[in-house]
Amino acid sequence: MQASWSRILASYLGERSVTFGVVLAGRTSDETADSPFPCLVTLPIVTEAEDSNMGLLQNMMAYNSNLYKHQFNPLAEVKKWLGHPASPIFDTVLVYQKTSGPHLNTDQWKLMEDLPSVEYSVSLEVEPLEDEQLHLRLTTRSDIVPHEQAELMLK
Fold first, then answer.
1. pLDDT tens for residues 82-104?
2. Which of 76, 96, 88, 124 is closest to 23 using CA atoms?
3. What pLDDT digit, counting tens, does each position of 42-93 carry?
4. Which biological process, per GO, is one annotated for this protein (predicted)?
5. Which residues lie below 8 Å from residue 10, measured CB to CB, with a gap of 6+?
6. Taking the domains of the chain in order of start, what are their residue ranges?
7. CATH annotation of 2-100+116-154
8. DSSP letter string over 78-135?
9. How far apart are CA 39 and CA 22, in angstroms?
10. Residues contacting 109, CB < 8 A, separation 6+
């Protein structure tokens, strides 16, 4: 998903190098596996366009193996490492929604109010369905990405 998203962003922006956020589950231990509360972490993915898809996938695999070592460092600290302590380092985010597991028992909770908001200019949520399909949800700030352009990104 990350390689595909980087290709889409690079094409849309006309840039060889793109940076976007990826949301990780943060459930890496027995203690957090069954936690009823979110354990999410958001980290930057920095990609440089590759001519081949295989090259891009290999680079993404290597990048991710290093990324997991730092997943619990605060984003503010990561921004300092990248030399941008006071400004955003990405304005798009990729989220892979895992919808199964014991922590998703919603019988105990009742949603009182849900006011959707967009923290990033573009947010792509990928959710696996039971029939081995993927549901894609693209949320954009319409003042930055017009509706028609958002539809093209999903195709």
1. 888 888 888 899 988 776 554 45
2. 96
3. 888 989 877 899 999 999 999 888 887 877 778 888 888 888 888 888 889 9
4. secondary metabolite biosynthetic process
5. 16, 17, 18, 47, 49
6. 2-100+116-154
7. 3.30.559.30
8. HHHHTT-TTS-S-SEEEEE----SGGG-GGG----------SSSEEEEEEE-TTS-EE
9. 14
10. none
